[in-house]
Predict the 3D structure of the following.
Amino acid sequence: MTASGKFITLEGVDGAGKSTHLDFVADWLRRQGHEVIITREPGGTPLGETLRELLLHQEMDADTELLLMFAARQEHLARLILPALARGAWVVSDRFTDASYAYQCGGRGIAAERVAALEAWVQRGFQPGLTLLFDVPPAVAEARRSAARTADRFEREADSFFSRVRTAYLERAQADPGRIRVLDARHSIAELQAEIGQLLQELA
Ligand code: TYD
């Protein structure tokens, strides 16, 4: 798949603070003159947002959860991400497939081969150009989660679930250090913005 814009994803356990940095990334890229689209997963399209509601609030089997994540992702790629990249826009997404490896494999215990098979089907080799992984120790993320508004189905999970999610994210980063850049999310917002600016500079 050829694309002229670039695709950037933000990842991390719930409570890592990644959402705070989405607008910063988009504004930084806009200052370079790029058209930028901000989106999120699950979600990003009308059907994807409907699936998000189900995924966040409806009890379901773990494999159903994984399949719905990828159904939403197929829709997202076909209707929003790939057309935007093809016309030269940059796309910044709050989560993408690394979250499926972290949450559905690390958190829920689904075999990575299942995610890899769906990834190959839906993405056909397409990958983000850069992934920012906001990493924090479990206790810090826990404190941030409990300060936040009403918890969804994922946010109600036990601390051990989030420890496994974090480990799975860090293993992904170790396996693909060129794409997935780990940021210490305990740093101040200003420090993180400086670090993010550096990484974007390398890409832009
Ligand atoms: P999140 O970014 O945490 O939304 P918010 O900041 O509004 O709470 O995303 C919602 C949840 O979806 C999050 O807990 C992680 C989960 N998720 C998966 O389990 N697998 C996936 O593939 C994706 C994209 C998200």
Q: What stands out?
A: Strands lie at 7-12, 36-40, 90-94, 130-135, 180-184. The chain has a mean pLDDT of 95. The pocket of thymidine-5'-diphosphate is lined by residues 14, 19, 41-42, 69, 94-95, 99-100, 103-104, 154 (CB under 6 Å). The CA atoms of residues 3 and 86 lie 5 Å apart.
